[in-house]
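Open question from group meeting: does this chain pack into something compact, or does most of it stay loose? Before anyone orders reagents, we agreed to write out a predicted structure and look at it together. Recording both the input and the output here so the notebook holds the full record.
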Amino acid sequence: MSIDVNNESGTEVDEQAILDIARYALARMRIHPLSELSVIVVDADAMEQLHIQWMDLPGPTDVMSFPMDELRPPSKDAEEAPQGLLGDIVLCPEVAKKQGEEAATQHSMDEELQLLTVHGVLHLLGYDHEEQSEKAEMFGLQAAIVDGWRAEKGLTGPSPAPTVS
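Structure tokens returned:
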């Protein structure tokens, strides 16, 4: 799996954890090991520009996903998914910090960025949360991936609750 993490935000973030949880999520979703993903960490001004340009919404947001080859997890019957370019995930640590502090289960900016990385991966794989049934499926899968990764890493305490809207 080729995953690039590029921090352009000026904020110190745990890039290794972002890389690790992205790799874990893609493996868990059975994405071809030669697929490629890019994660870019930007400041609030850059995220706001992307949010306006691509979503026509004001202000910065927490995470945006830009799919490339529209890869999907393989069906249960398929042996392997095709390889390709998954796309880009853009994260904003300033928004993540605020969301982590305001969450019901308060957590760190880095924990929120890990959650947002998984959220972004799922969007790249075609998951969405517009409809209530889609939201339940996506957020359930997101929680299972984050919990599985945290357990594998031996991290204790409650997993971050979904703060992504």
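Observations to bring back to the group:
The helical segments are 15-28, 44-55, 93-102, 109-124, 132-153.
The radius of gyration is 15 Å.
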